[in-house]
Specification:
Strand order of the largest sheet: 7-8-9-10-11-13-12
Oligomer: single chain
Strand content: 5-15%
Largest sheet: 7 strands, mixed
Number of domains: 2
Helix content: 25-40%
Distance between the termini: 25 Å
């Protein structure tokens, strides 16, 4: 049914935090569902993208803190002084559940205080496969993180074609019920707004919009790789003798991160073992794989045919493989956050050993994950997981291969094989 609310994994976390903390800030890109999640809990709402509400808050930010709690301050970055007003209010009264702040960008003029100890931030990302309700998960990341190699099982009817459709369909809730053509137009408008509106609103002048758009396309082509930003810049300006300077393209990255559009996976660096020669660049990801696919003009047919993007990018394998990894990464980041864990990737210098994703508990023990665009898993597909298990010993809780197959099971060597649709929080 159009317009219905699909429960989010972050909902339970948000409710739990509001029960014990006075102020929560929901962060994430535009259209990700922050306001809808907050509205289900708020009793008083101030929308700071309304000029009239902004005028009131500019005159006296404290006026926007009144009303029955929780008080929702939507798009708070439009009036950064509200952040400091909330912080001061929390200093005076730490009653739980007083304020929810939602923001689609870090403000151009940051607050005078970080809010540390007063305002707790919570990240909201596009919808994962379980949140889209395409399959009932049978394997829990939280249980894998608990150790003991829990039993793994389950059957999925989701095939490669359906995964491609989900890559293209987007995890932005408001786009889920659109036809293919309407979805493409909405994604085009979303990307155009970033260039034409969001950059200027954050105080960044874009003198050559076409260069920014090409840079975003080159970044999309580098999805799930660790390509250098110099390589991305070169790919964005292929054939041009007069390339933009780093001082031009670095702000692109910075502003897109402030808008939560770039969501790179940091390198995982173990702190209490003898692993050597680790490379530490981030692995590139956009907030939603549908944005990457649309920037590159990918379609269901072109992805299934294995076509490469016209924008060159250093990658092993197909674009579909990178976008599938991006879809899996989106899910794992949400599941890891719900389990109070973090996500990174591991790559040794020269690429001799590489683990696509590493989920780390607070005590630094890990679940290592490989992502394979395949329905069948061979011994060669788990060799890096086996290597890491030998290196980490007891700190290696579990190894998982996430694939496009139909059954979840454990191999004889203990490595779990899990179809992407069957993995959940």
């Amino acid at each position: 049914m159009p317009g219905r609310y699909l429960p989010r994994i972050v909902d339970d976390e948000l409710s739990g935090l509001l029960a014990g903390l006075p102020a929560i800030a929901l962060e994430g890109p535009k259209g990700v569902g922050k306001t809808e999640s907050a509205l289900r809990r708020a009793k008083t709402v101030y929308r700071l993208d309304d000029p009239n509400i902004q005028a009131v808050g500019s005159a006296d930010p404290a006026l926007l803190l009144s009303g029955n709690p929780p008080v929702l301050l939507d798009e708070w970055q439009r009036l950064p002084s509200v952040w400091d007003a909330v912080r001061r209010a929390v200093d005076r009264d730490r009653t739980p559940g007083r304020f929810i702040l939602t923001g689609s960008a870090a403000p151009g003029s940051p607050p005078t205080h970080s809010g540390a100890g007063r305002i707790v931030t919570l990240r909201l990302r596009p919808m994962t496969l379980p949140e889209r309700q395409i399959e009932q998960p049978t394997v829990s990341l939280r249980e894998l993180l608990a150790g003991g190699k829990p039993p793994v099982g389950g059957h999925s009817d989701v095939d490669l074609g359906r995964y491609v459709e989900e890559i293209l369909a987007s995890g932005f809730p408001g786009l889920r019920d659109l036809s293919v053509r309407h979805l493409e137009l909405q994604l085009d408008g979303y990307l155009a707004r970033i260039v034409d509106t969001d950059f200027p609103e954050l105080g960044q002048t874009v003198r050559r919009p076409q260069t920014l758009r090409r840079w975003m396309t080159a970044y999309a082509a580098a999805t799930a790789t660790t390509a250098s930003y110099e390589t991305i810049r070169d790919a964005a300006t292929g054939g041009e003798a007069d390339k933009p300077a780093r001082t031009t393209t670095i702000p692109y990255r910075d502003v897109l991160e402030r808008l939560w559009i770039l969501d790179p996976v940091p390198a995982w660096v173990p702190t209490r073992n003898t692993l050597k020669r680790l490379a530490q660049p981030p692995k590139h990801q956009l907030a939603d794989p549908a944005l990457a696919a649309r920037l590159l003009g990918a379609t269901r047919d072109s992805l299934l045919r294995g076509e490469s993007p016209t924008t060159r990018a250093p990658r092993d394998g197909t674009l579909l493989g990178g976008l599938f990894e991006s879809l899996v990464t989106l899910g794992l980041r949400v599941f890891a956050q719900a389990a109070d864990a973090s996500l990174g990737h591991l790559r040794t210098r020269g690429g001799r050993h590489e683990i696509d994703l590493v989920v780390e508990r607070r005590d630094q023990r890990v679940v290592a994950v490989e992502v394979k665009l395949s329905s069948a898993i061979a011994d060669d597909d788990v060799r890096h997981l086996s290597w890491l298990r030998e290196q980490l010993g007891r700190d290696f809780l579990d190894g998982v291969v996430i694939n496009t197959g139909s059954h979840a099971y454990r191999r004889k060597d203990g490595i779990a094989v899990v179809p992407a649709a069957l993995l959940g929080p």
